[in-house]
Amino acid sequence: MISKAKKMKRYLPLYLMFLPGAIYLLINNYIPMAGLVVAFKKYNIRQGIFGSAWAGLKNFEFLFATPDAWVVTRNTILYNLVFIVLNTVLGILFAIFICDTLNKKLRKMYQSAILFPFLMSAVILSYIVYAFLSQSTGIANNSILPALGLDPVKWYSEAKYWPFILVFVNTWKGIGYGCLIYIAGINGIDLAYYEAAKLDGATKWQQIKCITIPSLAPTVITLTLMSVGRIFYSDFGLFYQVPRNSGMIYSTTNVIDTYVYRGLMEQSNVGMSAAAGFYQSVVGFALVLTANFIVKKFSKENALF
Amino acid sequence: MREKPFSRFQILANTSMIVWTIIVILPFILLFMSSITDENTLVANGYSFIPGKIAADAYVYIIKAGDKILKAYGVSILVTFVGTILNVLLSALMAYPLSIKNLPGRKFLNFFVFFTMLFNGGIVPSYLMWTGVFHIKDTLFAQLLPNLLLSAWNVMMIRTYFTTSIPDSLYEAAEIDGASQTKIFLSIVMPLGKPILVTMGTFAGLSYWNDWTNGLYYIVRNRDLYNVQNLLNQMVSNIQYLSTSTSSNVTSAASNIPSTAIQMAIAFVAILPIMLIFPTFQKYYSKGLTMGGVKG
């Protein structure tokens, strides 16, 4: 008994230290998880989430009866797939280029250049893109297109251009994150492999194909699976700010996150946006678990849990 | 890997990377050049890398006439400062118990933190809770509290650092000397954990500085509480309102929109602090510590 009291005295301060953060997570993260039931309610402000009357699956019926549900799901998944492929391929390519750059100062400069845009907020991104694409004052319509002999384009009202614009902006901003992980991976490869390959007369391409890429494979698989696990989520800023919330291009810029936002804030349709949010949370969670399960099979130390 | 500096591969690698570096830098130059271009020139000729006529008007305007703008910077600075300190303190306090290997219930506490990384309720229940229960709409708490105050990821990174970089023998020695847990935390854990705390503080600060979503959701009427990002965002919405509206309010909305050069100047000043923290950020990322730190 003495030991129990003593133990309590010893550990109590530790639990108290844990407490403030735990209260925050409880409020900010756990209550909203429980609040997901609002998707099955006929929400009413005065009665709150838990007091409102049940609506069964009504909200979901409305959601999946619209063509939007399909469009935003398709957009979310397709964009993410393209992002994953491009960030992996270009990330590895740039990592190889940077690691093989002989000049130390240049190497440092390249590394800074690929990472810096990663720190920009979506609002700043939207300003930068606007400077290029603004209909009357943008560089594209004012300088680039006339030089090529082409007519000006109304960028913010033509949906067909946006898949390319968003993919480019995402790469411009996000390439650095994965690339730096690949650089760390390449720096970890034993130089002796390359020396031996060179003695055998291997070309640069053969060295990359037979040493660099196989060595990076576990990292690539892990990063890719983790991204696939997040395929139902997208960067709200990229899809909301960069197209400047322009309604005419929703068909190619609307993703689940922007759809939920607009349902909630612009149309005050709590039921439908809650249903879409629930759909995203639950399918997203299942995908994260699946991805982790597969990573665990490939390399146990890289799994999240 | 050593080879001739002018091999075909070296030329290919350097050319590609120099082209990419230019692609990265050009937009920032454009942003800056537009901010120092004379407004009339900008309207007539559009954005340009070479300002036809240089004018520092935009920056003078920000300092002299920009009451709203300075207020927004004030909100950004205050919230970033307070938020970062609270974030680091809460995270360190939470990470330390998790790093004690024989703490009873450690596994459960760990899971409690970790699970928030796997599953979340999304914006709809969060929004209804913050506005309906805590009434943070149009208060400064709206910029400070939702989502940014603590991230499970930061806590996990700090915990792993504590476990791997602070030797158990130090704790044992302190306990033999009769030091309390509070004392151990303040005199051993915090000083030794400084590198990770600085890094995580940089991340938290960046999240606060760059955040515009909290303002978008929760700052509706009291625009004095806008931060810089919200202000920039609002200018965009006003312009859209102008281009779609035919009502007589247009003139009043138009007078609220600063010129393009001023918008670009505000954006440029919003990027400056990021340049300051960039070296810290890069040092961390270059170590490739981003993976594996969550487990442990």
TrEMBL record, chain A:
Residues 73-291 form the ABC transmembrane type-1 domain. The keyword Signal does not apply. PROSITE patterns: ABC_TM1. The keyword Transmembrane applies. Keywords: Cell membrane, Membrane, Transmembrane, Transmembrane helix, Transport. CDD domains: TM_PBP2. The chain crosses the membrane at residues 12-31, 77-102, 114-133, 174-194, 215-233, 274-295. It is found in: Cell membrane. InterPro entries: ABC_transporter_permease (IPR051393), MetI-like (IPR000515), MetI-like_sf (IPR035906). GO terms for biological process: transmembrane transport. One of its GO terms (cellular component) is plasma membrane. It is a multi-pass membrane protein. PANTHER family: ABC TRANSPORTER PERMEASE PROTEIN, LACTOSE TRANSPORT SYSTEM PERMEASE PROTEIN LACF. Belongs to the binding-protein-dependent transport system permease family. This is Putative aldouronate transport system permease protein. It comes from Anaerobium acetethylicum. The lineage of its organism: Bacteria, Bacillati, Bacillota, Clostridia, Lachnospirales.
UniProtKB/TrEMBL annotation, chain B:
InterPro entries: MetI-like (IPR000515), MetI-like_sf (IPR035906). It is found in: Cell membrane. Its main location: membrane. One of its GO terms (cellular component) is plasma membrane. One of its GO terms (biological process) is transmembrane transport. It is a multi-pass membrane protein. Pfam families: BPD_transp_1. Residues 73-281 form the ABC transmembrane type-1 domain. Keywords: Cell membrane, Membrane, Transmembrane, Transmembrane helix, Transport. Gene3D superfamilies: MetI-like. The chain crosses the membrane at residues 12-33, 73-96, 108-128, 140-162, 183-209, 261-281. Belongs to the binding-protein-dependent transport system permease family. This is Putative aldouronate transport system permease protein. It comes from Anaerobium acetethylicum.
